[in-house]
Amino acid sequence: MALKRRFVSTRLLKEGMKIDQSILDRTGRSLIEKGTYLDDFHIEFLQEKGVGGVYIQEGEADPSELSLQIPQYTREVIEKNRVEDRTKVNLTESVRQRVSEGIQYLYSNTDAGNFPEAASRVTDELMKAITDNDAVAVDINMLKVSDEYTFKHSVDVATMAMIVGKKHGLDDKEIHEVGIAGLLHDVGKSKIPKEILNKAGKLTDEEFSLMKQHSRLGFDILNSRKDFSNAILLGVLQHHEKINGKGYPMGLSSDKIHPYAKIISVADVYDALVTERPYKSGIPKGIAIEMIMAMTGELDFDAMKSFLSSVILYSVDSIVQLSNGERAKVIENHPDNCLRPRVVGLTTGKIYDLANDISCASLLIQ
What is the largest CA-CA distance in the chain? Predict the structure, then answer.
C-alpha cells in the first residue's frame, strides 16, 4: 500500500499513528514534529490545546524512516519519570472570547460610564482562571486571546503579572489590582495616532517622544475616573521606569517605583520581545528569557526572579531539539530554571537533566 495523507479528527487519533505535519507554536518552534509516531501524551496535548484534527500518514513507511518510531524502552522511561507541570493558568475558549471582547471594549471606550466596572470584570475572568485550579505558573507558549497586538499584549501582560504577583507574595486584592493595572498599562496608546502605533519603520525622535507619553496619558485617563486605587494608577504610570533611573516618564530610581510597576515592567518587556510587530520580528522565547535575565540594571531583581520561576517555557510532553542532534521529550520542568528542563532522548531513551547534571552543561535546546 502506497503512502497517503489523511486528515483525522483529534478525538479519533490512536497511539502509533504517524503525524504528517508539524505542530508549531507562534514563534515557529516545533512542539510535535512531522514524522512523529503519536503516543497518548501527544494525543492528550493536541486535545487539550483545542486542535480539531491533524494529517496522518498511512501506508508502508520508508525503511530509512523506521528510526523515527519511539522505542518501547523510551516510552517506559518517559512514563516512569514524567512529572506533571505545576498547575497552570487555563484560559478556556469561552473565557478567551469574553476577555478578548472586554479588552477591546475598554481600549475603545475609555470615556464610558462603566469603564471601571468593565475593567474589573475582565480581571475577574483572569482571576477566576488562576484561582479555579490554584494556578502557580503560566505556559508562555499558550498565551494569546486576539490577533490584534494591543489587546493580546495587554491580556498577556496582565495574566503574567497576576501569576508573578502571586509568586511575589501579593494577596488576592493586590493580585486583582495588579491585573487591572496590567490590562490597562497601555490604555494611553488609545490617544496615540494609529499611524505612529503601527508604523513599519523606525520612529522619528518626535514620534518616539509622543509614543513615550502613553504611560502618562494612561494615568490621566484612569485618574480622571476616581475609581482606581493609587497603586493601580502608579502601576500604569511607572511601568516604563527602570531601576537605574533611565526609564520614563520621570526617570525614577528603584526605591521610587511602585511594586506593581516593577512586576508589570518585567512582563511587559518579555511580551514585547517575543511578539511580532510591523516594525520587527518576534524574538524566540528562550532568547527573550535570556535577555530578561541579563537586564539586572533595568528590571527589579525580585520581580525578575518571581517572573522566571513562574513561567513555563517548555511544557511537559513538548518535543525539543537538542544541540547534540537528538530530539527529546520534556518530562519535568525545574521551577528555578525554565530554560533547562529534564528531557528524554526519543531514540535513545537517555535522560538529560539539563539543569542539574554537569555532564549536560554544554547541551542546549535549540
Answer: 72
Q: What confidence score (pLDDT) does residue 146 get?
A: 54
- Overall size of the chain counted in residues: 366
Sign of the CA dihedral with 9 first, then 11, 14, and 15 last: positive
Q: What is the pLDDT of residue 93?
A: 74
Given phi > 0 = left and psi -120 to 50 = alpha, else beta, which region is 279? alpha
What's the CATH code of the domain at 52? 3.90.105.10
pLDDT at res. 150: 67
Contact 257, 243 (CB under 8 A): yes
In terms of DSSP bridges, do strands 4-9 and 18-19 run parallel, antiparallel, or are they unpaired?
unpaired
Question: Are 59 and 139 found together in one domain?
Answer: no
Residue 57's H or E segment, with its range, is: strand 53-58
- How big is the CA angle at 139 (ends 40 and 364), to the nearest 5 degrees? 80
Residue type, 314: Y
Q: Are residues 139 and 54 in the same domain?
A: no
State the residue range of the domain holding 320. 71-85+316-366
Same domain for 197 and 158: yes
Please give the grid coordinates belonging to residue 160. 503574567
Best CA proximity match to 135, nearest among 166, 175, 107: 166
Task: Report the domain count for the chain.
Answer: 3
CATH of the domain at 290: 1.10.3210.10
pLDDT of residue 1: 44
Low-confidence ranges of the chain (pLDDT < 50): 1, 61-68
Q: What angle do the packed helices 115-131 and 172-184 form, to 10 degrees?
A: 120
Check whether residue 78 and residue 111 sit in a common domain.
no
